[in-house]
Design brief:
Elements: E1 13-17, H1 24-38, E2 44-47, H2 55-63, E3 68-73, H3 75-85, E4 92-96, H4 102-106, H5 114-123, E5 125-137, E6 143-148, E7 151-155, H6 156-163, H7 166-172, H8 176-184, E8 191-197, E9 203-207, E10 209-213, E11 235-240, H9 247-259, H10 266-274, E12 281-286, E13 288-301, E14 304-325
Parallel strand pairs: 1-2, 1-3, 3-4
Antiparallel strand pairs: 5-6, 5-14, 7-10, 7-13, 8-9, 8-13, 10-11, 11-12, 13-14
Helix pairs in contact: 1-5, 2-3, 6-8
Length: about 325
């Protein structure tokens, strides 16, 4: 095969992979073959560690001149690599390997076809999407800033993640979160949240959980935020506040039935328009939201727990990340 890079420096790819989540030999064989077919140079390889899940590694890959960075691992690895690539213009290629694969599902990227997922790094097209950025303030006043790709959450969903068994996740995948919810319910109490949208006036809301989304699909394919798009320059907010003995049933009806079934047809959408909005689920849209709670609450980003937060400011960094998608998709 003719080498399109003859007479000039060949581009190189970098692979950031979680050795616990991937078959390294199979991954290396597929990447090496795809790079050679595309006429690229020798790929740079980086393993994630507990101390560096991806951000520092990506900085090294950028310094080496990587033209694309492949992230092979779970949602935590993909999130960390994306955070490192924020506003660099260097594209991310996702090689789905974890339990949730949330961004891959939302972008309809290959989940089980390793070679197709990897080929996108070398022959795919660029898709520019937004990143969510959260500044977390702890009870002691210290702050941290992190990016997320899909969703951030305060309250029940963060407790659920904290209480989900890692062993069970390996055994049954996303269904393990049901066990996490069951473990979280005894601790569950409404949380009074003071919030402000786009720097506007303070408002109060009593919720069991509040989720901020850059994308709308949850594990298992449940559509929580039907209007969320990863490239619209906006964040969607879902506040779950079940009321009365059938409150959670109404939340489930909204997510599983209305969002997941009725919205797929014109007749279904008409039925939604004619029905009364459930007070148990409140939707908001914003570019910037600040939330403060009286008692620090568990906080999560893309399915990873980030400890307890007193105040969280979250905003959209529009067009901050380029993702490789298969050609023609």
């Amino acid at each position: 095969m003719a080498n399109p890079q003859d007479g000039q420096k060949k581009p190189i790819a970098a692979v950031v992979y979680n050795p616990i989540k991937v078959d390294a030999e199979k991954l290396k064989a597929s990447v090496t073959s795809a790079a050679e077919d595309a006429g690229w140079g020798q790929t740079a390889w980086f393993e994630t560690t507990e101390d560096d899940p991806g951000q520092g590694i990506v900085a090294s890959a950028v310094r080496r001149g990587a033209s694309v960075v492949l992230a092979a691992g779970g949602d935590g690895t993909v999130r960390a690599v994306a955070e490192g690539l924020r506003d660099t213009g260097i594209p991310l290629c996702i090689v789905a390997s974890g339990t949730g694969n949330l961004l891959a599902r939302n972008l309809e990227l290959p989940l089980t076809d390793l070679d197709t997922a990897i080929a996108a790094a070398f022959t795919g097209e660029d898709r520019v999407i937004d990143l969510g950025i959260s500044e977390i303030t702890r009870a002691d006043g210290s702050t941290e800033e992190h990016a997320f790709l899909v969703m951030a959450g305060l309250g029940l969903d963060a407790k659920m993640i904290k209480n989900t068994s890692t062993k069970l996740k390996k055994a049954v995948g996303w269904l393990a979160y049901i066990d996490g919810i069951a473990r979280s319910l005894p601790e569950l109490k409404p949380v009074r949240v003071q919030y402000s949208l786009d720097g506007g006036p303070q408002r109060a809301l009593s919720v069991h959980t509040i989720i901020i989304g850059n994308c709308g699909v949850l594990p298992g394919g449940f559509l929580l935020m039907p209007d969320a798009e990863p490239d619209d320059g906006m964040l969607d907010v879902a506040a779950l506040r079940p009321q009365g003995p059938f409150g959670w049933a109404k939340v489930w009806q909204k997510v599983a039935w209305e969002n997941g079934v009725l919205r797929k047809s014109a007749l279904g959408r008409k039925l939604i328009d004619l029905s009364k909005d459930a007070r148990d689920v409140t939707y908001l849209r914003t570019r910037d939201i600040t939330m403060t709670v009286a008692t620090p609450q568990e906080f999560q980003l893309d399915g990873d727990e980030f400890g307890e937060a007193k105040t969280v400011r979250t905003w959209v960094d529009a067009g901050a990340l380029t993702v490789k998608v298969p050609a023609g998709s």
